[in-house]
Design goal:
alpha/beta, 7-stranded mixed β-sheet, 6-stranded mixed β-sheet, binds the ligand NC(=O)CC(=O)C(=O)O, EC 3.5.1.3, omega-amidase activity
Length: 276
């Protein structure tokens, strides 16, 4: 594959209640995705645990721990980068929703704690309060791959355009969001947000959901997908377990930015998005 291209695979994994089965399944699917030529493979939010506040304390582990070590071993065995969705992380008396990123040597190269807590109330449809037992992270997380800088957010982080814009200002060309939208917000916002973040920043956006389990307490929307810097959905699936692939093309990012040069046309004299 040309140096300007990178094949990514997103794993829309069926997550169940048994942690060891989830870990085994993730490793099996990483093997399959590596066999499909992927250089970077990403898992969904909470790949080792059902998504839900009652599960977070029960499934939480330190990092490294059982679930994340298995990702490091898989990255090394199959010679790929692994973006490990997320796991409930325990550190001291706090819990976080945390994504780890692993390199082909099996080393952890980044750790992102979900920055924005998913606390919502859509009357009669869904109420969720992550902050009842999770704490937010306080950092932006980027990773320098050999030919592409990537930015990581987790699910609700995708709703905050400033975060994506900060990543694009940092030089990211691909944003990855392991996420688990639901049957209310999924159909309404999942694709729209990805296309918005992609178009605003002229980057690729990949969002990775668990497969839908209609018997779960929190029913995931699915529809894992990749959006191009032109705002087009270039790879997607329905709600069932699946691996989807896309070839991210950095020359195409440059081309889109040359054709419609909004990133150079910003009025920094009138407004700015900056980190603190
Ligand atoms: N689960 C999330 O963090 C976010 C979500 O489902 C939404 O924003 O909608």
């Amino acid at each position: 594959m040309a140096a300007s291209k990178m094949r990514i695979a997103l794993i829309q994994m069926a997550v169940g209640e048994t942690k060891t089965t989830n870990i085994k399944r993730a490793v099996q699917l990483i093997r399959e995705a590596a066999g499909g030529g992927a250089q970077l493979i990403a898992l969904p939010e909470c790949f080792n645990s059902p998504y839900g506040t009652k599960y977070f304390p029960q499934y939480a582990e330190t990092i490294p721990g059982e679930s994340t070590e298995a990702l490091g071993e898989a990255a090394k065995k199959f010679g790929v980068f692994v973006v490990g969705g997320s796991v409930p992380e325990k550190e001291g008396d706090k819990l976080y929703n945390t994504c780890t990123v692993w390199g082909p040597q099996g080393n952890m190269i980044a750790k992102h704690r979900k920055v924005h807590m998913f606390d919502i109330n859509v009357p009669g449809q869904i109420m969720f309060r992550e902050s009842d037992n999770l704490s937010p992270g306080h950092n932006f997380t980027t990773v320098d791959l050999p030919n592409c800088k990537i930015g990581i957010g987790i699910c609700y982080d995708m709703r905050f355009p400033e975060m994506a814009h900060i990543y694009s200002q940092m030089g990211c060309k691909l944003l990855l969001y392991p996420g688990a939208f639901n049957m209310t917000t999924g159909p309404a916002h999942w694709e729209l947000l990805q296309r918005g973040r992609a178009l605003d920043n002229q980057v690729y956006v990949a969002a990775i959901s668990p497969a839908r389990d209609p018997d779960a307490e929190y029913i995931a929307w699915g529809h894992t997908s990749v959006v191009s810097p032109w705002g087009e959905v270039i790879s997607t699936c329905d709600e069932e377990e699946a691996i989807i692939y896309a070839d991210v093309d950095l020359d195409y990012v440059t081309k889109v930015r040359q054709m419609i040069p909004i990133l150079n046309q910003k009025r920094n004299d009138l407004y700015q998005v900056t980190t603190k």
